[in-house]
Amino acid sequence: MIKNGDSTQLERQWKILSILSWENNGMTINQIYQRLAKNFGEEVSTKTIKRDLDDLTMVFPIYEEGEGRGTTYTLEKYKIHDFIFSVQELFALFFTREIIRKYDTSEIGKMALNFIERIISYIPSIYDDYIDRLYRTFLIQKDIDSDKNVTLDMLETINDAIIYKKSIKMRYYSFTSDTETEREVDPYLIYEKEGHYYLTGFCKLHNEIRDFRISRIKKIKLLDKSFEISPNFDKSKYYKYTWNILKGSTKYRVQIRFVGNAARLVKEYEGYRADEIVENNDGSILFIKVVSQLDEIKRWVLGFGCEAEVISPDEFKDMINDEIIKMAKKIRSE
User: Fold this and answer.
1) Taking the model in full, what pTM does it have?
2) What is the DSSP letter of 27?
3) Same-domain status, 233 and 173
4) Of 154, 138, 141, nearest to 106 (Cα)?
5) What is the pLDDT, as a whole number, of residue 119?
6) What residues contact 241, with CB distance under 8 A and at least 6 apart?
7) Is the pLDDT of residue 2 over 70?
8) Are 81 and 124 a contacting pair, CB within 8 Å?
9) Is position 61 within any domain?
10) How many domains does the chain divide into?
11) Residue 142 belongs to a domain
12) In a domain, 200, yes or no
C-alpha cells in the first residue's frame, strides 16, 4: 500500500502515475525511469520504481503485460463522460464550485476554482441545462475575503517544513505590537479560518506555541534544523477553547443570559458556538462557553447591548462593565 507517512515515496509514486496516464500503450520500467529523469529531474533505481509499481497496483488499475525487462505497465484511464451523474451529484458539484469561488482572490483559491471548472467543462453537454438553471436560481454569497498575498510557494515551503519537521526562520509583522521581528519557529500545522491562513508552531522568540497569520510573514527560509512536536501540544484541545483566533492559558467558563430578540437570534444563528444553551421558561437563554481568552468574546457580547447580561465569571463582568463606562464617557464628552 502507499505509505502516506513517507512523503518522498508518495510524491514519487504520484509522478509515476502521471507518467503512466500520458501513455496509452503501456511503459517499461526503463521508460518510466527515463521519463522521471527527463520530466521531473527524479533519479532513482529501477528496483525502487518496481517497488513503487508493486505498491501502486494494489490501489490503482495498473496492468502488467509481458515478462522480464520487456514487461509493460498500463494505467486504465477513466473519462468523465463514462459516468452518469445523478441530480444530487450535479448539485453537489455546482455547490463545490460556488463554495470554492469564495476563495478565488487567493492564489490557491484560484487554482482550486480552475480545477473544478475544468472538471465541469468535461461533463457531457446533456447536463449543461441543469447546471445553467442552478447558476440562475441558486446563490451562495461571497462573505469571505481570503488572503490575497499568500502564495503557493509560501504554503509549500511551510508544508515541507511541517512534513520533514524542519524549523523555519521568518520575518513576521505583529499586528498587536505593530512591529516586524525575526523569528525561528518549529511549524506544527497550517489551518484556514474565514478565508485567512494561519501557521501554528513553537515560537522560539517567546518560548511558547503561537499562531501566525501567514499573510503577515514577510520573508521565510527553511532551515536545516530538525525538531519534534512538543508532547504538550494537543491539536484538538489547542483549538477547542478559542472564540475566534486568540488563545490564552486560562480557562474561563463564560455564562451569558440573553433576552428578547437577542435570545432568539443567538439560539438560531450563534448556537453552534456554545458548549451548552439552557432555555428558560421566560424565553431567555443561558449561553455557556469555555474560552481561554476573553477579549474576542467581549466584543461579541457588547454587540447585543442591554439584551445580554454576563452572569460569570466575575472578571468578565468587570471587563464588560469597564468597557460600557468608557463608551458612556465618550458619548457624554461628544
Assistant:
1) 0.69
2) B
3) yes
4) 154
5) 81
6) 247, 251, 290, 291, 292
7) no
8) yes
9) yes
10) 4
11) no
12) yes
